[in-house]
Amino acid sequence: MQKITLSTFKNYKKNAQKIVAITAYDALMTQIFDEYADMILVGDSLHMSFNASGDTLGISVDAMIYHTQAVCAGARRALIVADMPFGSYYNVDEALKNALRFYTQTRCDALKLEVNADKIGIIESLVKEGFAIMPHIGLKPQSVRAEGGYKVKGKQENEAKELIALAKELESVGAFGILLEGVKKEVAAAITQQVSVPTIGIGSGVDCDGQILVWSDAFGFFSEFKPKFVRHYANGREFVSKAMQRYADDVRAKTFPNDEESY
Ligand code: KIV
User: Which DSSP string corresponds to 68-93?
Assistant: First the structure.
């Protein structure tokens, strides 16, 4: 089993081989996904899908580090990318301090930060210090309160141009890949064509170099709402719910445990 590295990502792009990415927040799921995924993101989406919070804001660096340690413990093959949470990179010093915590307290391979043009300097400083950085552009969930909702990006020509220019700048300051969320598919395709680093898309069309989904969305565990870009590969919620019901029924009927399950 060959560990996926930044060089693997470069080769995937060169050979037009799609990158398979998914989120994970613990070792158990990571052990299952690791066989198939090239990249596992410890996303701050965990604050919504696992902590039942209304948005991703409010998760701490400590919590993200705890989950990143768990994911790293379960992974052997996939590239592990940790999400830097809201407020942990508002200036260069804070970004360097917190990035260092992720690198020294976990075995993650890279970090992801939600950025706009104002944050190019932060990405540049992190790369110069030796961090592998995947900026996240387009729809940025950490900006949901500031923007008043989740809005698809690149619909207007000027916004499309800005996104393409931003992606090119991020490449020029050393980003090893770029995550595109909620970007119009034509704009995501143009970015993918115009940068030499791989793009990983979510809700950004099929032409990105790779795709990522939040695992609880993809496997039907998160039922609050289903964004248009999510495909359900399983009905996990129903599967677990039925199993839980059978267990509860057995306990109440005193048919669990039986003699063979007892000492
Ligand atoms: O936090 C997360 O899971 C993400 C994905 C939506 C890409 O950033």
Answer: HHHHHHH-SSSEEEEEPPTTS-SSHH
